[in-house]
Amino acid sequence: MKSRGALVPISGLHGIGQRPVAFGTPGRASHTALKAGMGFFLLFFVCASGYSQKFDGLALTPPMGWNSWNTFGANISEGLIRETADAMITNGMQEAGYRYIVIDDGWEAKERDAQGNLVPDPARFPSGMKALGDYLHGKGFKFGIHNCAGTKTCAGLPGGRGHEFEDARTYASWAVDFLKYDWCNHGTANGEETYKTMRDALYAAGRPVVFSLCEWGDTQPWLWAKEVGHLWRTTGDIMDCYDCQGVYALGWKFILQKQNGLEKYAGPDHWNDPDMLEVGNPGLSLAESRAHFSLWCLLAAPLMAGNDPRAVSPEIRAILTDRELIAIDQDPLGKQGYAFMLHPGKQIWVKELANDEWAVCFFNDSDGAVKLRLDWSHLSFVKGTRRIRDVWEKTDLGTTGANFERAVPAHDVFVVRLGPST
Ligand code: GLA
Questions:
Q1: pLDDT per residue over 262-278, tens digit each?
Q2: Catalytic residues
Q3: pLDDT confidence band for 16 (50 / 70 / 90)
Q4: What is the C-alpha radius of gyration for the chain, rounded to an integer number of angstroms?
Q5: pLDDT digits (tens, 9 = 90+) for 136-166
Q6: Contacts of range 240-247, beta carbons closer than 8 Å, 24 or more positions apart
Q7: pTM of this prediction?
């Protein structure tokens, strides 16, 4: 449940203000003082502009990993995180590209320590976050953590507001690689200004961190966050269902609809984030998991698995680790797909790939099976004759020279990759 907390004044610039700066000796002639003043101004400008950036180049393709929230909520522990990492190695998720293990809300103690530092919950994370990060790094993963730009996280634990620079140093001391920064209890704070403060704090702390803005699309972060973070949420929370709707949360079918039109804002190192995957969770049928995964790949979405990797079925493992789908998501051109046609039952989503290839996803959003009759010449983006690859079935289907028919079950997809012109 999201709540609105009281406004706390921001103190984001203290990390810069605290730096010692040397300038002219008092009592000298006025032009010396003037020069000294200019020197101070220039030094301050250099320092300030030196911090006003994100770490570039950390997310040239959409980040992939696992996050604890969708399955476990705040019911997490270091044992669960370690077991998850181990499972992702044995079930092939790590090898398929899932690198970041992100510990979402629930890891903190209820209060900061006497010095104002964040501390982990002593009962559930008794070894501490540095030790847990070391474990993840030792297993070849990157270490991600969650906090909130407000006074408290959504689970009521200490938020970062007013503590940005000290918290960034804490994360650096734990060797954190990824920060998901939430938006509960932000009062009347300005989103852009608040997230820029945390960006600058991370940069000042000196450890490269992927910065994941979780501001729910409230202030259209796609318009301002390219220079602030590597990914930004575009909507409220995803739910474990196809088309249900809650107060702040939506099934993936509705989240999908909200992505169309945002494609122009995404690209290497700055991605729209339609929220973490519900693939494999009990509220989705196998077809709905397959379609959800396919469409997130067409969207060049960050692929943050939200299932329990310790208990993954062979069918779900096959979806999450499908190399051809992941290659569409991770395509180096870095273009987000868009809706070419939104006809009920026959949605067509397309994504341009490197080397003049295309991914096309036919999505049956209706509650009954549909038969597609395809005349490729109607798809105006397809120039020339292309070889057709059925991405899920792993079969080649001839070329776009001939018309084509295919039945697509309810809530399922048919995904093809169109090769270069023949
Ligand atoms: C918000 C975020 C979720 C999750 C929870 C944790 O709702 O959008 O993804 O991080 O907070 O409390």
A1: 999 999 999 999 999 99
A2: 182, 237
A3: very low
A4: 24
A5: 999 999 999 999 999 999 999 999 999 999 9
A6: 240/70, 240/278, 240/281, 240/282, 240/283, 240/284, 241/278, 241/283, 241/284, 242/283, 242/284, 242/285, 242/288, 242/411, 244/283
A7: 0.89
Q: Are strands 231-233 and 271-273 parallel, antiparallel or unpaired?
A: parallel
Asked if 305 contacts 65 with a C-beta cutoff of 8 angstroms, the reply is yes
E strands of 183-337, at which residues?
210-213, 231-233, 237-238, 249-250, 271-273, 303-305
- Sequence letter at residue 17: G
Find, among 95, 72, 73, the residue nearest to 317 by Cα.
95
What H or E segment, with its residue span, contains residue 343? Answer: strand 338-343
Q: Is 154 in the pocket of ligand 1 (CB under 6 A)?
A: yes
* 96-124 pLDDT, tens digit each: 999 999 999 999 999 999 999 999 999 99
What does the longest C-alpha to C-alpha distance in the chain come to? 87
CA of 182 to the centre of ligand 1 (A): 7
pLDDT of 74 > 90? The answer is yes
pLDDT above 50 for 1: no
Q: Is the dihedral of CA 365, 266, 303, 191 positive or negative?
A: negative
Q: Are 273 and 302 in contact (CB under 8 A)?
A: yes
Q: What is the pLDDT of residue 167?
A: 98
Looking at residue 50, its pLDDT comes to 61
pLDDT band at 365 (very low <50, low <70, confident <90, very high): very high
Q: Which amino acid is at 352?
A: E
Residue 197's contacts (CB-CB under 8 Å, 6 or more residues apart) are 10, 12, 13, 164
Q: Whose CA is nearest to atom 8 of ligand 1?
A: 237
In the reported structure, the alpha carbon of residue 398 is separated from the centroid of ligand 1 by a whole-number distance in angstroms of: 45
Q: Answer yes or no: are the C-beta atoms of 96 and 320 closer than 8 Å.
A: yes
Question: Cβ(215) to ligand 1 under 6 A?
Answer: no
